[in-house]
Structures are given as C-alpha cells and as structure tokens.
C-alpha cells in the first residue's frame, strides 16, 4: 500500500490586527517554534497522501474498520471473538 501519513506543523503569522496568515509548514515542532514570533500560532495537522485510487479505497475500508472497532467496549470485543 502506498499511502503515506505526514505530520506537519503549520505556522500562522499574526498580521497585527485580527487575522493570521499561513506562512509555512514544518516537519517538526521545534523548527516551527523557532520560526514563530510572539503572537504567531502553530497548528499540528496530518496529511494523508494516496498514490492511487486503489490505495485510497483500501485505506478507507481499513479506516472504517478501525473506527467501528474503536466504538466497541471490551466486553463487546470478547463476545465477538476479537480478543
């Protein structure tokens, strides 16, 4: 499967008024913090990149399964034979 999950930290620079403007993305939080000013904001986000539609469909079905399993209690998992 050629799906990549990339964690980035986005730097939003305060314009001195009531807005913040996107400036750059960094691969680690330390670099983002070093580039940020006193009133700037850093947001962490996850970018998911798929190489093909088949990779996307495979990832989506796996993601659906993970979300469904996360909603089950431990007792429900035992009853279903998942544990």
The low-confidence runs, each spanning 5 or more residues with pLDDT under 50, are none
Strand content: 25-35%
User: Taking all residues together, what is the mean pLDDT?
Assistant: 90
User: What's the overall geometry?
Assistant: elongated
State the helical fraction: 25-40%
Rg from C-alpha positions? 19 Å
What is the ordering of alpha helices and beta strands?
A: EEHEHH
Largest sheet properties = 3 strands, antiparallel
Helix count? 3
The tally of domains stands at 2
* DSSP, total strands: 3
Strand order of the largest sheet: 2-1-3
Structural class: alpha+beta
N- to C-terminal separation?
A: 26 Å
What kind of assembly state do the chains in view correspond to? single chain
How is the topology of this model organized?
Blueprint: E1 3-14, E2 20-26, H1 29-35, E3 41-50, H2 53-70, H3 74-79
How does this structure look, described?
With 83 residues, the chain is an alpha+beta fold. It folds into two domains: 1-50, no CATH class; 52-83. 37% of the residues lie in helices and 35% in strands. The protein is built from three helices and three strands, in the order ββαβαα. A three-stranded antiparallel beta sheet has the order 2-1-3. The protein is elongated, with a radius of gyration of 19 Å. The two termini are 26 Å apart. The model has no long low-confidence stretch (mean pLDDT 90).
């Amino acid at each position: 499967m050629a799906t990549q999950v990339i964690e980035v930290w986005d730097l939003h620079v305060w314009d001195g008024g009531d807005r913040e403007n996107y400036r750059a993305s960094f691969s680690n939080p330390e670099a983002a913090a070093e580039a940020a000013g006193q009133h700037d904001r850093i947001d962490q986000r996850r970018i998911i990149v798929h190489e093909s539609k088949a990779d996307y469909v495979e990832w989506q079905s796996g993601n659906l399964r993970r979300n469904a399993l996360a909603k089950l209690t431990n007792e429900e998992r035992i009853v279903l034979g998942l544990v």
